[in-house]
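To whoever is covering the structure queue this week,

Two jobs came back overnight. Logging them here so there's a record in the thread.

Job A:
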Amino acid sequence: MEFTIKQVAERTQLPASTLRFYDRTGLMPLLKKTEYGTRKYSEMDICWLELVRCLRDSGMPLEDIKAFMLLCLEGSSTSEQRKEMLQQHRQNIVKQMDVLNCSLGTIDHKLDHYNEIGIFHIDTP
């Protein structure tokens, strides 16, 4: 089954402009097009998009995502390289989570402080 860019945008919650950008930048190397240039998405393309989105949402730079996708196309001979890329990215995510958890702790502490002292407003007549 094939899907239009509009259908894929609705299904993935990605704007059509993002889908076009991903195609232009080489993140969708297997995407088929009609003789008129209309994009035709398959289930496999949607799976690729979900992986691209996961990597992008987790902070991986687009160039690294593209390199990862190109390694995927080379087949099993690159599986160790892909595994190393994902392990490194996972370490980056864990570091980000540590920073965010620290920030969250600070914010929670401040909120607790404001809840203790209350917030007073002086109404002027």
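Job B:
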Amino acid sequence: MTDNTTLFAATDLPDVVKRYLTAHNEHDVKAASASLTPDATVVDGGHTYEGIPAIERWLDRAVSEYTYTTAFLGAEQDGPDRCTVTQRLEGNFPGGTVDLRYRFTLDQGLISHLIIAP
């Protein structure tokens, strides 16, 4: 942990991050995408999705392909407009369990960039 990183609880996450994670966990693609800037970028599994239409296709595929549950493990504020959330996913995907880091970059109250990686 560096000097400019602060640990915090799920309740202290930026509202837009809470809305995105809740929508994603509830498989609500439209609500999740409403948390994003129009030119947002998501990087997941080595693939980059740019713009709302591409991200909505990715979200729709992600929520329909596997059944899984998530558990919040922790969060860090990495800067004034950046935070990382760590969640454990358990489900019917290869491996069955994985801890993922969701690295959010915010722009004017919306998510402009998200990197999801172990």
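Note for Job B: DSSP finds three helices and seven strands in the chain.

Please reply-all if you pick these up so we don't duplicate work.
Q.
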